Every structure is written in structure tokens, then in C-alpha cells.
Amino acid sequence: MKQIFFFLALSLVIIVFSLSCRKTVTTTPAPADVNPDFTISPDSLKFPIAGASDTLTITMNGSRWAAVSDQSWCTLSANSSSDGSSQVTVTVSANPNMGDRTATLTFAMDTKTVKYVKISQAGRTTLYPAYGDSIAPDASGMSSTAVQLASKFKLGWNIGNTMEAPGGETGWGNPPITESYIKFVKQSGFTAIRIPCAWDLHVDDPATAHIDTNWLKRVKEVVGYCVNNDMYVLLNIHWDGGWLEQNCITAKKDSVNAKQKAFWEQIATEMRDFDEHLMFASANEPNTNSDPAQMAVLMSYHQTFVNAVRSTGGRNTYRTLVIQGDNQLISLSAFPKDPTPNRIMYEDHNYTPYQFTALNGDASWGKMFYYWGTGHHSTIEPDRNATWGEESDQLQYFDYIKSKFIDKGIPVLMGEYGAYRRGGTANVPLDLPTHNASVDYWITYVTKQALAHGLKPFFWDTGGILDRRNNTVVDQETIDAIMAGGK
Question: Which CATH superfamily is domain 146-485 in?
Fold first, then answer.
């Protein structure tokens, strides 16, 4: 490869030299008995990350020299000259990358005597700049441990398909969140709100992972609506294009950790003044494919999250933080290390069985279930009765979560759950009353068992249960079922 590069570079020099000689000039060729004298000083240059310019001095006894750079970020003020002594300015642009980079300048006198100048430039040791500042710890309004904080709220509500939507808050057709809507959610019987939120979709400078300031302020405003109305808030990085959730792999570990750090430094700094009503969640539904190596990578993302939030100081020194697993639950020994003890919660989601709760069309791996639970199977449409994921499976799941986390002092949020009615013009159950009763029963049963086992449930809604424009209940049966489970 080096030989190929040499001949390519030399060919470029010859072309540049030939073109520069097309004008009619009268030159006196060097005497045949004169040895070639061609020097370039210095023979190497080093540049800082920010970029700069420096000078080369060139002397020769030939008729002309010509030069090329093998990198576009490194340029010359002149690419040829017939002067016996000349100076050339080398200019290097800012290095946006991690690590050092190099360039080679190739000089040729009379197309045959070749000299090289090596260019090197420093790069960042971290992919993105550090954000925010670190202020002194502030324990005011932050006295609760994670266990104590979890005891202060009961039923949670998701504002889905809004702050995480591509294109912004209204990108998926929902109206902007208002304080009156937050008050309406509280009046409906909920004490906590989960705000799924996108951040990578709102970066205004990918080279620095800088989040649009207007977006940060808008999210802060929505969080304020909740805190000001004594609602506990869970703010996360949601799907967000999958930059974290689909990249729990070694090849992406460094770049994802760099972005995770940059984002949470910015988010945590912006939200730092809120008291313990605000919790942060590292991710949403990270995909590790049940692979231990990928789970280890995910744990590094959670550790970066904890470190970034704590680094901002103030109330964030004591803020409760929430981490997530995947199909395999995280071992307590693998939890991120937190300098503030007893301030971490675990989050899991429950849509079991998905064929009943949310699948909206038969799939190759399974058909939709319309009927679920004891006393709620259909004799009219028995092939649509649930065949798994019923009460015994739910109890086994909740018992396991309780023994693995809650009994060991780690509160658990059921950050998303829900079952939804089918109907309209497609996927209409033949036994619609039994279907609707099944949905109500699932919601009540799962809500009740979650609370009985110590989990705090957050129902997933995208505007189909509580109308966000008029602050009215669209599906009173679902609200009644949640409240029944909460008794």
C-alpha cells in the first residue's frame, strides 16, 4: 500500500508541476554537473486541536517545485514555485474527531527529487466537550431514599407519543402538553407522571452533541407543570432513534457512552433545581438480545448516566436515578456504582401477553388474543383465548421481581403497562362484551398485583384514554379498571 501511495502522490505532483509549467517562460536549466539541492524546513509540523497555520521554508537549485497534500483538512498557500527560496503557509482546520490525525505533504523538484513533510494534529480525548458545571451538593428537598420516595406515589401515567415523537412534541398528532392537562391527570387519580423524551432528535450540532436550548427549556417547562402540582415525575431518554437502545454492543460502546455522558450532563444541569419530585431514567427498553456481553455494555451506559448526573452537583447529588434491563434481569452485583447510597430504582415494563395487550394483527409468531383470564374466555371464539401469560404467569413474574429487587431494598417502577380494546373496522372480536371485560380484568388484575408486590405502575396512554385537547375521559372503563386495581 505504501508503494501505491508513493506512486499516486508522485503522479499528482507531476500533474500539478506540468500544469503549472504551461505558461511560456524562459528558464536556465541547472548545469548537468550540479547536484540537486532541495530542502524543506522543518520536515514536520504539529498542530493543536483547534487548528492553526505554520510556515515551511523551501530552498532549491532546480527550476520548479510542486506539492500536494493527501488530506483535505490540511492545505497549502501555494502548490508550486520557481523561486530558489520561498515560504509556504500550511493551514490545518479544527479536528472534530477523537484521537490524533496525520497528513503527508509531498514536494517534488523538477518532477524527480521528492521530499515529504509530516503533519500531525491532536484530537480530543473525549468525543464531545464537557457540559455544565459542578456546584456544591444541595440536600434541600432531597431527603428521601429511593424506597422512601417510592412510597410517596402510587399510580403513574405516561404521556406517550409526545415529547419522544420525531418532529417535536406534536409530531405524532398530539397537542402540546399544558398545565391544565397535568392537573386533569391528577384529578383523574394519578400521583406520578412519566415523560418519555427524545434528545438526539433535538441535537443542533452533531459534532458536539449539543441539545437545542429551546428544547431543553420546553422539557423543563413540562416538568415544572408536574412538580408545581405535587406530581412525581420520571424523565428519561426514550427510544430516540435507537442510538442507545439498539447499540448495546462492544463496537458502539465508546461512542454511545460519549453521547450518554454529553446528554445527561446537559439534561441534569438544566433540571438541577427541581427537588426530589423529579427522577431521571437512563433509557427505556434497551435491547441486549439476552446476551451477557451486551448486558455488560448496557451496564456501562448506566454507569455513565450515574456519573454524569452526579457530576453536576446541587440537588442532582441526591436525586433518585432509574435503570433498566432487558429480557434478562440485571444482577444486583452489576448495578452501577453510585457515590450517593440508596438512590437507585429499577424499571421494567409489562405487556404480557403482548398478543392480548397490544398486538393489532396476527403475526407469523402468533395470533392475536381477544380474551384473557379466569372467567373471561370466550366459547364463541375459543381460538382467540389466551394460551399463556395469564394469572399464574403474572404472579410468577411479580414474585420474581419482588424477591430479586424489592425485598433487597431496590424499588421497582413498572414504567409502562396496559391492555387496549380492539374494535372499529378491523380486528373486531366476535364476542365483544367478553373482550371488553377481559381488558378491564387484565388492567385491574395487573395493577393490583403490581402494587401488592411493591411495584409502582405507570399506565401507557397516547391520548386514547384521556383526551389532551379537551381534558375529558375517552375511555372511562379503563380509568375505572386502574382505580379498582389501586384500591
Answer: Glycosidases (3.20.20.80)
Q: Are 108 and 65 in contact (CB under 8 A)?
A: yes
Q: What is the mean pLDDT of the chain?
A: 92
Q: If you ran DSSP here, which 8-state letter would residue 94 be given?
A: -
- Portions of the chain given CATH number 3.20.20.80: 146-485
DSSP 203: E
Does the pLDDT at position 26 exceed 50? no
Element (H or E) spanning 224, and its range? Answer: helix 213-228
Indicate the Cα dihedral angle 291, 295, 297, 299, nearest 10°. 180
Q: Which among 456, 478, 454, 401 is positioned nearest to 193, based on CA atoms?
A: 456
Beta-sheet pairing, 455-461 with 278-281: unpaired
Superfamily, domain 2-20+34-121: Immunoglobulins (2.60.40.10)
Query: Is 273:315 a contact under the CB 8 Å cutoff?
Result: yes
Q: What angle do CA 67, 73, 76 make, to 5 degrees?
A: 30
Q: Is 68 exposed, middle or buried (0-12, 13-18, 19+ CB in 10 A)?
A: buried
The pTM of the full predicted model, rounded to 2 decimals, is 0.79
The tens digit of pLDDT for each residue in 326-354 reads 876 788 889 999 999 999 999 999 999 99
- The answer to whether the CB of 123 falls within 8 A of the CB of 92 is no
Whole-number pLDDT of residue 9 = 46
For residues 86 and 480, give the distance between their C-alpha atoms in angstroms, rounded to a whole number: 86
* Residue extent(s) of CATH 2.60.40.10 domains in the chain: 2-20+34-121
Query: In which element (H, E) is residue 195 found?
Result: strand 192-195
Q: Evaluate whether 280 touches 235 at the Cβ level (below 8 Å).
A: yes
Decide: helix, strand or coil at residue 314.
helix
Neighbours of 424 (CB within 10 A): 7
